[in-house]
């Protein structure tokens, strides 16, 4: 647990100095050393949810990277939150991997997970377009129609 910047309290501090312990847990990770020697971690529910979400995203992304590197379409389909990538052509998968990697790096460094989720939603919308031939043709047709002059 050397990577956790925290304050450590004894179990007896929970009853004697509970307000101080709770305030500490609101500010940073707080360790509670129980009388049996086990150390427990106290942190906010929001932080625990964020950590769990980040962990799930990173695990799914690792599965996606592995499947993509092997050209394993079924593995991509089974990559959890990133299963939509199976609908993208290989060159867009590469671009998506770079985008998601950069966003996850920022989030892992304390950035917002909202930006990761928004980026994933954008890529899901892109994969929906690639999965629908008619919609894709309509969108690409817009690129060949010259824009009207606006005065």
Q: Would you mind describing this structure in some detail?
A:
This protein has seven helices and three strands, in the order βααββααααα. It folds into two domains: about 5-45, YefM-like fold (3-Layer(aba) Sandwich), CATH 3.40.1620; about 45-145, no CATH class. The protein has helices spanning about 15, 20-25, 45-70, 75, 90-110, 115-130, 135-145, and strands at about 5-10, 30-35, 40. With about 150 residues, it is mostly helical. Strands 1-2-3 form a three-stranded mixed sheet.
As a percent range, the share of helical residues equals 55-70%
Largest sheet: 3 strands, mixed
H-E string: EHHEEHHHHH
- Inertia-based shape: elongated
* Average pLDDT metric: 88
Figure out the total of helices: 7
β-strand amount: 5-15%
Physical arrangement of strands within the biggest beta sheet: 1-2-3
Strands, count: 3
Low-confidence stretches: none
Distance between the termini: 65 Å
When the domains are counted, the total is 2
Specify the structural class: mainly alpha
Compute the CA-based radius of gyration: 23 Å
Summed up, what is this model?
With about 150 residues, the chain is mainly alpha-helical. It is about 65% helix and about 10% strand. It has helices at about 15, 20-25, 45-70, 75, 90-110, 115-130, 135-145, and strands at about 5-10, 30-35, 40.
Can you lay out the helices and strands and say which pair or pack?
Elements (H helix, E strand, L loop, with lengths): L5 E5 L2 H4 L1 H10 L1 E5 L5 E4 L2 H26 L2 H5 L12 H19 L4 H19 L1 H12 L7
């Amino acid at each position: 647990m050397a990577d956790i910047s925290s304050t450590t309290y004894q179990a007896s501090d929970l009853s004697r100095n509970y307000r101080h312990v709770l305030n500490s847990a609101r500010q940073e990770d707080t360790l509670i050393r129980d009388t049996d020697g086990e150390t427990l971690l106290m942190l906010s529910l929001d932080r625990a949810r964020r950590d769990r979400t980040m962990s799930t995203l990173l695990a799914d992304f690792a599965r996606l990277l592995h499947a993509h590197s092997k050209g394993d379409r079924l593995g991509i389909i089974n990559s959890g939150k990133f299963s939509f990538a199976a609908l993208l052509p290989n060159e867009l998968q590469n671009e998506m991997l770079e985008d998601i990697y950069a966003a996850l790096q920022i989030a892992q460094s304390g950035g917002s997970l909202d930006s990761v989720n928004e980026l994933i939603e954008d890529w899901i919308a892109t994969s929906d377009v690639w999965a629908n031939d008619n919609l894709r043709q309509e969108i690409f047709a817009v690129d060949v129609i010259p824009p009207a002059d606006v005065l």
